[in-house]
Write a structure and sequence with these properties.
Chain lengths: 352, 352
């Protein structure tokens, strides 16, 4: 859009050249002084600092990047932003990156778009690394990392490649926790509303759930969306064997399940049918949902993802770094509570 | 974190120097060739392009920024990210910026943080401009723009300064639309649940609402949050004159109002009390809310904000550029519908 345009005069920010001229030193000396690399004599340094102060010069991160080859910018690739859990993740990553001296270059893509296509977009910028949320099992992370020449850390979901770096919730454990809680509450007709095929979250949560049940649950795909969760619940409840306990692979589908039960069947979650979700997104605390759910801490995950990326960049860690974080079950009102239930990693919402 | 560390060898991306060496030309010639500025002979250009191809060199946006002083990066400053409407805005801005050849550098801040403090953070990066969502009336945009030397465009909310650029919904019109709809439906006990003090949205929506009513509505602050909207609704309904029509300055407070009516008072929105929101955020289409609301198109606003910023950067527009976009009322089930109501800027949800 601006190619060939005249340089706007408005953006008259002082440059390192202006500082050099005023200080009577070379531009290279100014660069060395602000990058803290290489030798600058005490006298020259004093002159440079005085000149920089007079001119209001601030060496910016991009300018530093020319010197030390770091841009201090990390690409965050995220899909499905309409779900508040991902927003919480984005907010947390952004905060953790800033604390670590990096800034977020955002690549938000439609969930239908292939993550692999992001390579060209990210490649247009010089980024130090990539944090990728909502990968698929098939995402070719190794190829992307090689093509871009920077490390990639996956978050929340992993890809089925041996060499990838990731930090994810222990989803198998999460599924087991839910099954054990439902069994202890006396349920015996189980259903699992899965997310999208190809997401490690959906697969592992279902596998953990199934592994701890005496018989296979019914399974319906809910697409990680409100509409999908609603339709799956309707199909289950109108089917030949309506479940009395429904585990949803994400909170948004659980909210839909609760609404479908109320508005389509006149049933109340927690009294008539138990509904348990996964993520503990903000709406789960709303009065209308009051959702019992697996807490997959976006804050801890985000901080670890940034720590891992930093360690890889500083060569203090060797790939692959792979971590599964413990999860716990937050007990609220949408699922029947077993009497005298005590288990590790299960906690009552305070104030109950 | 990485200061003084040895340069990692991994990021061995070919540089313009490598291309120059292989092509047997100067680095300056490579820069000219890729920036499309200045003269490069045909033969040299052919050699440079061949060398770049062989080496897999791609001139990245940051490298270009050295040449034309544009970084192709726009800072997007956003607060209150936990409300899905802001997420939609962020997603739309990001898409519009990419289409225009820019990328989003994200600055998400807690809503409690003073926006003015962002100057230092943004100043650490070389950005071409700033799009600021969720400004306050008191935000000193002129000072920020001067300090950073780049244009700023406000979105969704404006600041009370004569010189600022902004694109906002016509909030006064929105408030009037709601009042006229409620009056036509026969309501006569009105309440307004406001947002935070200091937001142009909250003030103008309330002013427009009030201006079209025969008498002043009751007003409660709802803080633009679920909890705030819930508490405000409780206070109104337990008060001496419970309203029969509640206008909320944002959808999230309207969802809370609907939940409070149902769970605290056994009342149904649309039948017992009319509730109207503002934004048409995703959840408003959920079965549980089915919210009648003012549509303040995040897509149009985002696209205009990017167009305005581009025009300012290309000096095709002169500040201040100030736009108020028409809004319309989307009629769903949460408010009583006047019989035979026909008005401009009011539309029934299709499929009703």
């Amino acid at each position: 859009m601006s190619k060939g345009k005249k340089e706007p005069e408005r953006t008259k920010r002082p440059t390192s050249y202006d500082v050099a001229r005023r200080a009577g030193v070379s531009q290279a000396a100014v660069s060395r002084a602000f990058s803290k690399r290489g030798y600058v004599g005490a006298e020259a340094r004093a002159k440079i600092e005085a000149a920089a102060k007079e001119l209001g010069f601030r060496p910016n991160a991009l300018a530093r990047s020319l010197i030390d080859k770091r841009s201090r910018i990390v690409a965050v690739v995220i899909a499905d932003m309409y779900y508040s859990f991902y927003v919480a993740i984005l907010h947390q990553i952004n905060g953790a990156l800033r604390q670590a001296g990096y800034q977020t270059l955002l690549f938000s893509i439609p969930s239908s778009q292939d993550l692999d296509t992001i390579v060209d977009d990210v490649g247009d910028y010089r980024v130090d690394g990539i944090i990728m949320v909502s990968a698929r099992l098939t995402t070719d992370v190794a190829r992307m990392s090689e093509a871009l020449g920077v490390p990639i850390v996956l978050m929340n979901r992993y890809a089925d490649q041996p060499s990838v770096n990731f930090v994810v919730p222990d989803d198998h454990q999460g599924g087991r926790l839910v099954a054990e809680f439902m069994l202890a509450a006396g349920h015996h007709r189980f259903a699992y509303i899965a997310g999208i095929e190809g997401a490690s979250t959906s697969r592992d949560r279902g596998d953990g759930f199934r592994a701890a049940l005496p018989s296979s649950p019914q399974v319906k795909a809910g697409d990680f969306s409100y509409e999908g969760g609603f339709a799956a619940t309707e199909a289950l409840m109108r089917g030949p064997a309506p479940p009395d306990a429904i585990f949803c692979a994400s909170d948004i589908m659980a909210w839909a399940a609760i609404d479908a039960l109320r508005h389509e069947f006149g049933l109340r979650a927690g009294r008539d049918v138990s509904v348990i979700g996964y993520n503990d997104a903000a709406e789960s605390r709303w009065r209308n949902y009051d959702l019992t759910t697996v807490v997959s801490s976006p804050d801890s995950m985000s901080h670890r993802a940034v720590e891992i990326l930093s360690a890889l960049l500083d060569r203090e860690a060797t790939p692959p770094v792979q971590e599964r974080l413990r999860v716990h079950l937050k007990v609220r009102g949408s699922a029947r509570v077993p009497s005298d239930y005590e288990a590790e990693n299960v906690e009552m919402e305070t104030g109950r």
